[in-house]
Design brief:
binds flavin-adenine dinucleotide, nine-stranded mixed beta sheet, 440 residues, 22% strand, FAD/NAD(P)-binding domain, alpha/beta
Length: 440
């Protein structure tokens, strides 16, 4: 296979481009937002539209982090955990509120795209969560029942219907949720930034915040060439970028490098067979298989590498092309035109957190590899909370940062465990009875 370009499809095709000047003076605002990703921008937009003075500081360019690099899937669910775990972690009342936020998050994304007229190829064509082995259908049923208790519109598809909707014989039933979909995440993030600027909030790119410190009743954020003084700070800096000195969020999360890849534009026959309804999908594998066919007709999929060293961008596409060819024989021998990577942040229980290292300084962790919808919805609520000086309800408790014990070692565990997860995936698939994988 010829090596794909180590470049992002989104960077090559995104619209809504604009640039914002670096901060070269001292600013005084109500709310300072660190990070020009979906979370920071959704919060900034809500607070600026509520009439508060907001400034956004981005170390590099808007969408430089996970928001501009992700797979573009808009998912009405949480990774690995369900409503029961949410309620155990956050309590009945907050848990209830948070689950409803998760379920409604895709509607908020697509609603925002329409309201702001963001040109990002957004398609609310549904999300499929198929079982990669027959033994996993029962757990999908339990998962679906738990989400439906909270009003999820999802249904369970038969094996035959799953194969038809995905265009692959390798799946055995699926949760289908019509509220999900996909978009070009870099165009979406840039569109949010455009709306923030139109709402009157200055955005400064190329302005890494080096320090956040208390100055009397206010906070002072320092960049190389300027500063912002604010009553409240939202540090939505996630895992990509320089972070902030003494970053209180960093020791409470595990960074994870994730690769994304895009095939050449599919042929007519491939498009009619593979996800013909345009859904986004992510399956039940530990080594997740997720994909969608983006607006330009390329299939975008992702994967993790057990080792990110040794030029993973060159050898991982070979492994992922084999997997893609097995799942979609019409694509075999599969190849990719683009490969790129981004850094996600995980919490140990895969649930988001709102860390509050000191009153008025919020560090949200909403990533867990599933944050396009959730960062939009939570960002908006955090923005409302900031804009109302803490009067609005938050669907998550605010807590002191919880440092993960033995963080330097813990930070490597997801990557080390990946081979075991892949082995379990292969074993589950091998237990598929003969004839269990029929024609799509
Ligand atoms: C490869 C990959 C694929 C993914 N696929 C999906 C998917 O398909 N669907 C889904 O729902 N989720 C997906 N996710 C997760 C999703 O992208 C994230 O949850 C979401 O984008 C997080 O948004 P954010 O605003 O919190 O962080 P980010 O987008 O990472 O933004 C943080 C920003 O802060 C900036 N920054 C850092 N330090 C500083 C500083 N000191 N000063 C100023 N700025 C700073 C960074 O440059 C960055 O732009 C994926 C993540 C990755 C990495």
């Amino acid at each position: 296979m010829a090596s794909p370009r180590v470049a992002s499809l989104w960077a090559a095709t995104a619209r809504e481009a604009a640039s914002y000047p670096a901060l070269e003076y001292d600013l005084d605002v109500d709310i300072a937002v660190v990070g020009g990703g979906i979370h920071g921008l959704a919060a900034a937009l809500t607070a600026a539209e509520a009439g508060r003075r907001v400034a956004v500081l981005e170390a590099f360019a808007i969408g430089h982090g996970a928001s501009g690099r992700n797979g573009g899937l808009v998912v009405p669910s949480l990774p690995r955990v369900g409503p029961d775990e949410v309620i155990r972690a956050f309590g009945q009342e907050r848990g209830d509120a948070f689950i409803r936020v998760v379920l409604d998050a895709p509607n908020e994304v697509f609603g925002l795209v329409r309201r702001l007229g963001i040109d990002c190829g957004a398609r609310q064509s549904g999300w499929l969560n198929p079982a990669h082995a027959p033994s996993l259908v029962a757990s999908l049923e339990r998962r679906l029942a738990a989400w439906r208790r909270f009003g999820s519109p999802a249904t369970l598809l038969s094996a035959a219907e799953t194969r038809r909707r995905i265009g692959s014989a390798r799946f055995h039933g699926a949760i289908a949720d019509p509220s999900g979909g996909h978009l070009n995440p870099l165009s979406y993030t840039r569109g949010l930034a455009r709306a923030v600027a139109q709402a009157g909030a200055p955005i400064h790119e190329g302005s890494p915040v080096c320090r956040i410190e208390r100055r009397g009743e206010r906070w002072r954020l320092t960049t190389h060439a300027g500063s912002v003084t604010a009553a409240r700070v939202l540090q939505a800096s996630n895992a990509q970028g320089p972070g902030v000195q003494g970053d209180p969020g960093a020791s409470g999360t595990v960074p994870l490098v994730v690769y994304e890849l895009a095939t050449p534009v599919l042929t007519g026959e491939q498009r009619e067979t593979i996800l013909p309804g345009g859904e986004a999908m992510s399956d039940t594998r530990n080594n997740l298989f997720a994909c969608c066919v983006e607006e330009g007709g390329r299939l975008v999929t992702g994967g993790m590498a057990p080792l990110t060293q040794f030029g993973a961008a060159r050898w991982l596409p070979v492994l992922l092309a084999r997997r893609l060819g097995r799942i979609f024989p019409l694509l075999a021998p599969a190849r990719f035109d683009f490969v790129w990577s981004g850094r996600a942040s995980l919490t140990p229980d895969f649930l988001p957190r709102l860390f509050e290292p000191a009153p008025g300084w919020i560090v949200p962790i909403t990533c867990n590899g599933r944050g396009v919808a959730l960062s939009t919805a939570l960002g908006a609520r955090v923005g409302r909370w900031l804009a109302t000086d803490g009067a609005a309800e938050l669907p998550l408790p605010r807590s002191a940062p919880h440092p993960i014990p033995l963080h330097p070692i813990a930070a490597r565990i997801p990557q080390w465990l990946l081979p075991l997860g892949m082995l379990a995936d292969a074993q589950a698939e091998r237990r598929t009875p003969r004839g269990g994988a029929g024609t799509p």
